[in-house]
Fold this sequence. Notes:
Layout: H1 4-11, H2 23-31, E1 44-48, E2 51-55, H3 58-67, H4 73-86, H5 91-101, H6 104-111, E3 118-124, E4 128-135, E5 140-145, E6 149-156, E7 158-166, E8 174-183, E9 187-190, E10 195-199, E11 206-213, E12 223-225, E13 232-234, H7 237-259
Antiparallel strand pairs: 1-2, 3-4, 4-11, 5-10, 6-9, 6-11, 7-8, 7-10, 12-13
Bound molecules: fe (ii) ion.
Amino acid sequence: MLPQQDRLLVRSLGSASVWTHDASCFNLLEASGYRTQAAVGVWGTTRFGNIQVGFEHPIEQVRLAREMGMFETERFIADCEAAFAADSSHKAIREVVARAMSEPATVLKSLGEPKRAGSQTLFHSDSLTILNVIWAPGMMVMPHNHRMWAVIGIYSGREDNVFWRRIPGEPNRIEAAGAKALCEKDTMPLGSDVIHSVINPIDRLTGAIHIYGGGDFFAAERSEWDSLTLDEHRHDRARTLRMFEQANARYEASLRTLDG
Length: 260
Ligand SMILES: [Fe+2]
Protein backbone atom coordinates (compact mmCIF):
# COMPACT_ATOMS: atom_id res chain seq x y z
CA MET A 1 0.00 0.00 0.00
CA LEU A 2 1.32 3.41 -0.92
CA PRO A 3 1.75 6.13 1.69
CA GLN A 4 -0.95 8.80 1.65
CA GLN A 5 1.50 11.41 0.37
CA ASP A 6 2.33 9.28 -2.67
CA ARG A 7 -1.31 8.54 -3.44
CA LEU A 8 -2.03 12.26 -3.40
CA LEU A 9 0.92 12.84 -5.68
CA VAL A 10 -0.28 10.32 -8.25
CA ARG A 11 -3.78 11.80 -8.20
CA SER A 12 -2.42 15.34 -8.60
CA LEU A 13 -0.45 14.63 -11.75
CA GLY A 14 -3.30 15.60 -14.07
CA SER A 15 -2.45 14.73 -17.65
CA ALA A 16 1.26 14.22 -17.04
CA SER A 17 2.85 11.12 -18.44
CA VAL A 18 4.08 9.04 -15.54
CA TRP A 19 5.97 5.81 -15.10
CA THR A 20 7.17 3.92 -12.09
CA HIS A 21 9.55 1.12 -11.15
CA ASP A 22 7.15 -0.03 -8.48
CA ALA A 23 4.79 -2.64 -9.95
CA SER A 24 2.24 -2.02 -7.20
CA CYS A 25 1.78 1.51 -8.53
CA PHE A 26 0.36 0.35 -11.86
CA ASN A 27 -2.96 -0.66 -10.35
CA LEU A 28 -3.25 2.67 -8.64
CA LEU A 29 -2.37 4.54 -11.83
CA GLU A 30 -4.89 2.61 -13.90
CA ALA A 31 -7.53 3.10 -11.23
CA SER A 32 -6.82 6.83 -11.50
CA GLY A 33 -7.42 6.73 -15.25
CA TYR A 34 -3.83 6.56 -16.45
CA ARG A 35 -2.73 4.30 -19.28
CA THR A 36 0.25 2.38 -18.02
CA GLN A 37 3.05 1.13 -20.20
CA ALA A 38 6.68 0.18 -19.97
CA ALA A 39 8.77 3.31 -20.50
CA VAL A 40 12.34 3.56 -21.62
CA GLY A 41 14.61 6.54 -21.94
CA VAL A 42 12.81 9.09 -19.82
CA TRP A 43 14.11 12.62 -19.53
CA GLY A 44 14.68 12.49 -15.80
CA THR A 45 13.47 11.03 -12.57
CA THR A 46 12.38 12.38 -9.25
CA ARG A 47 11.93 10.33 -6.12
CA PHE A 48 9.04 11.05 -3.82
CA GLY A 49 8.62 8.57 -1.04
CA ASN A 50 8.63 5.10 -2.54
CA ILE A 51 7.30 6.13 -5.95
CA GLN A 52 9.74 6.95 -8.66
CA VAL A 53 8.18 8.97 -11.45
CA GLY A 54 9.76 10.02 -14.68
CA PHE A 55 8.68 12.51 -17.29
CA GLU A 56 9.27 12.52 -20.97
CA HIS A 57 9.42 16.30 -21.17
CA PRO A 58 10.72 18.96 -18.79
CA ILE A 59 7.40 20.79 -18.85
CA GLU A 60 5.80 17.79 -17.24
CA GLN A 61 8.31 17.94 -14.46
CA VAL A 62 7.48 21.61 -14.08
CA ARG A 63 3.81 20.68 -13.76
CA LEU A 64 4.75 18.22 -11.04
CA ALA A 65 6.59 20.94 -9.12
CA ARG A 66 3.54 23.16 -9.32
CA GLU A 67 1.20 20.40 -8.23
CA MET A 68 3.43 19.80 -5.25
CA GLY A 69 2.97 23.46 -4.29
CA MET A 70 6.67 24.12 -4.48
CA PHE A 71 8.23 27.35 -5.56
CA GLU A 72 11.77 27.16 -4.44
CA THR A 73 14.23 29.43 -6.15
CA GLU A 74 16.61 26.57 -6.96
CA ARG A 75 13.78 24.48 -8.38
CA PHE A 76 12.50 27.42 -10.43
CA ILE A 77 15.93 28.05 -11.91
CA ALA A 78 16.35 24.36 -12.73
CA ASP A 79 12.91 24.33 -14.38
CA CYS A 80 13.81 27.37 -16.48
CA GLU A 81 17.09 25.78 -17.55
CA ALA A 82 15.29 22.55 -18.48
CA ALA A 83 12.60 24.43 -20.40
CA PHE A 84 15.22 26.49 -22.25
CA ALA A 85 17.16 23.33 -23.12
CA ALA A 86 13.99 21.83 -24.60
CA ASP A 87 12.87 25.01 -26.41
CA SER A 88 15.24 27.95 -26.88
CA SER A 89 12.38 30.33 -27.73
CA HIS A 90 10.53 32.14 -24.93
CA LYS A 91 7.55 29.77 -25.07
CA ALA A 92 8.54 26.97 -22.68
CA ILE A 93 10.01 29.37 -20.12
CA ARG A 94 6.89 31.51 -20.29
CA GLU A 95 4.92 28.46 -19.18
CA VAL A 96 7.29 27.96 -16.25
CA VAL A 97 7.00 31.61 -15.23
CA ALA A 98 3.21 31.65 -15.64
CA ARG A 99 2.85 28.65 -13.35
CA ALA A 100 5.12 30.20 -10.75
CA MET A 101 3.29 33.56 -10.88
CA SER A 102 -0.08 31.83 -10.45
CA GLU A 103 0.94 31.40 -6.80
CA PRO A 104 2.51 34.79 -6.01
CA ALA A 105 2.47 34.28 -2.23
CA THR A 106 4.60 31.17 -2.63
CA VAL A 107 7.09 33.05 -4.83
CA LEU A 108 7.20 35.90 -2.33
CA LYS A 109 7.90 33.48 0.50
CA SER A 110 10.76 31.87 -1.39
CA LEU A 111 12.38 35.05 -2.73
CA GLY A 112 11.68 37.11 0.38
CA GLU A 113 9.62 40.26 0.90
CA PRO A 114 11.03 43.10 -1.26
CA LYS A 115 12.91 45.57 0.93
CA ARG A 116 14.56 47.96 -1.53
CA ALA A 117 14.85 48.52 -5.28
CA GLY A 118 17.46 46.49 -7.13
CA SER A 119 18.19 43.76 -9.60
CA GLN A 120 19.28 40.42 -8.15
CA THR A 121 20.81 37.94 -10.57
CA LEU A 122 19.35 34.51 -9.81
CA PHE A 123 21.00 32.81 -12.78
CA HIS A 124 23.31 33.91 -15.59
CA SER A 125 24.88 32.11 -18.53
CA ASP A 126 25.88 33.24 -22.01
CA SER A 127 22.37 32.46 -23.27
CA LEU A 128 20.00 32.73 -20.29
CA THR A 129 19.66 35.27 -17.47
CA ILE A 130 17.11 35.24 -14.65
CA LEU A 131 16.69 38.40 -12.57
CA ASN A 132 14.60 39.22 -9.52
CA VAL A 133 13.83 42.90 -10.12
CA ILE A 134 12.42 45.14 -7.39
CA TRP A 135 11.04 48.51 -8.54
CA ALA A 136 10.76 51.40 -6.07
CA PRO A 137 7.44 53.29 -5.91
CA GLY A 138 7.15 55.69 -8.84
CA MET A 139 10.40 54.43 -10.38
CA MET A 140 10.75 54.79 -14.16
CA VAL A 141 13.28 53.21 -16.51
CA MET A 142 13.98 55.01 -19.78
CA PRO A 143 13.14 53.27 -23.10
CA HIS A 144 15.62 50.50 -23.86
CA ASN A 145 15.97 47.31 -25.86
CA HIS A 146 17.42 43.93 -24.91
CA ARG A 147 18.30 42.44 -28.33
CA MET A 148 17.10 39.05 -27.09
CA TRP A 149 13.71 37.74 -26.04
CA ALA A 150 12.42 38.35 -22.54
CA VAL A 151 9.69 37.04 -20.26
CA ILE A 152 8.37 39.18 -17.40
CA GLY A 153 6.29 37.83 -14.53
CA ILE A 154 4.89 39.88 -11.62
CA TYR A 155 4.66 38.30 -8.16
CA SER A 156 4.03 41.46 -6.12
CA GLY A 157 2.70 44.93 -7.03
CA ARG A 158 2.44 46.27 -10.56
CA GLU A 159 4.70 47.14 -13.49
CA ASP A 160 3.49 49.25 -16.42
CA ASN A 161 5.23 48.90 -19.76
CA VAL A 162 5.24 51.48 -22.55
CA PHE A 163 6.26 50.13 -25.95
CA TRP A 164 8.14 52.22 -28.48
CA ARG A 165 9.00 51.95 -32.17
CA ARG A 166 11.65 53.56 -34.32
CA ILE A 167 10.40 56.49 -36.44
CA PRO A 168 10.93 55.82 -40.17
CA GLY A 169 13.21 58.45 -41.68
CA GLU A 170 14.39 59.70 -38.27
CA PRO A 171 17.45 57.67 -37.27
CA ASN A 172 17.91 57.00 -33.57
CA ARG A 173 14.49 58.42 -32.63
CA ILE A 174 11.47 56.54 -31.32
CA GLU A 175 7.78 57.13 -30.72
CA ALA A 176 5.33 55.51 -28.31
CA ALA A 177 3.45 52.58 -29.82
CA GLY A 178 1.44 51.04 -27.00
CA ALA A 179 1.30 50.18 -23.34
CA LYS A 180 0.44 47.30 -21.06
CA ALA A 181 -0.18 47.24 -17.33
CA LEU A 182 1.10 44.11 -15.63
CA CYS A 183 -0.47 43.19 -12.30
CA GLU A 184 0.31 40.47 -9.82
CA LYS A 185 0.15 37.01 -11.51
CA ASP A 186 0.58 38.50 -15.02
CA THR A 187 3.23 37.16 -17.38
CA MET A 188 4.32 38.77 -20.65
CA PRO A 189 6.82 37.79 -23.35
CA LEU A 190 8.81 40.42 -25.26
CA GLY A 191 10.27 39.80 -28.71
CA SER A 192 13.96 40.36 -29.35
CA ASP A 193 13.36 43.68 -31.15
CA VAL A 194 11.04 45.20 -28.54
CA ILE A 195 11.81 48.65 -27.11
CA HIS A 196 10.10 49.36 -23.80
CA SER A 197 10.18 51.64 -20.78
CA VAL A 198 8.96 50.56 -17.37
CA ILE A 199 7.26 52.36 -14.51
CA ASN A 200 6.09 51.24 -11.11
CA PRO A 201 2.92 53.34 -10.74
CA ILE A 202 2.01 52.29 -7.19
CA ASP A 203 3.19 53.52 -3.80
CA ARG A 204 4.92 50.31 -2.76
CA LEU A 205 7.71 48.10 -4.05
CA THR A 206 6.97 45.88 -7.05
CA GLY A 207 8.58 42.44 -7.38
CA ALA A 208 9.07 40.89 -10.83
CA ILE A 209 10.95 38.03 -12.43
CA HIS A 210 12.69 39.08 -15.66
CA ILE A 211 14.19 36.38 -17.86
CA TYR A 212 16.30 37.03 -20.96
CA GLY A 213 17.16 34.29 -23.44
CA GLY A 214 19.14 33.81 -26.61
CA GLY A 215 22.13 35.94 -25.65
CA ASP A 216 24.29 37.15 -22.81
CA PHE A 217 22.19 39.84 -21.15
CA PHE A 218 25.12 41.55 -19.45
CA ALA A 219 27.44 41.43 -22.47
CA ALA A 220 24.95 42.41 -25.20
CA GLU A 221 25.36 45.69 -27.04
CA ARG A 222 22.09 47.39 -26.18
CA SER A 223 20.51 50.79 -26.66
CA GLU A 224 18.56 53.14 -24.45
CA TRP A 225 16.78 56.34 -25.37
CA ASP A 226 17.16 59.57 -23.43
CA SER A 227 14.12 60.32 -21.23
CA LEU A 228 14.08 63.98 -22.26
CA THR A 229 15.02 63.93 -25.96
CA LEU A 230 14.26 60.28 -26.87
CA ASP A 231 17.62 60.17 -28.68
CA GLU A 232 19.29 56.75 -28.87
CA HIS A 233 22.57 56.06 -27.11
CA ARG A 234 24.46 53.05 -25.90
CA HIS A 235 23.12 51.31 -22.79
CA ASP A 236 25.05 52.34 -19.71
CA ARG A 237 24.86 49.72 -16.95
CA ALA A 238 26.50 52.00 -14.38
CA ARG A 239 23.81 54.60 -15.01
CA THR A 240 21.10 51.98 -14.47
CA LEU A 241 22.65 50.98 -11.14
CA ARG A 242 22.78 54.66 -10.09
CA MET A 243 19.13 55.00 -11.06
CA PHE A 244 18.22 52.16 -8.66
CA GLU A 245 20.20 53.79 -5.85
CA GLN A 246 18.59 57.19 -6.47
CA ALA A 247 15.17 55.49 -6.38
CA ASN A 248 16.13 53.84 -3.08
CA ALA A 249 17.19 57.17 -1.61
CA ARG A 250 13.82 58.67 -2.54
CA TYR A 251 11.95 55.61 -1.21
CA GLU A 252 13.83 55.56 2.09
CA ALA A 253 13.31 59.33 2.51
CA SER A 254 9.56 58.83 1.97
CA LEU A 255 9.50 56.10 4.62
CA ARG A 256 11.28 58.40 7.07
CA THR A 257 8.71 61.11 6.32
CA LEU A 258 5.90 58.65 7.05
CA ASP A 259 7.61 57.54 10.28
CA GLY A 260 8.08 61.16 11.37
FE1 LIG B 1 13.70 45.84 -20.12
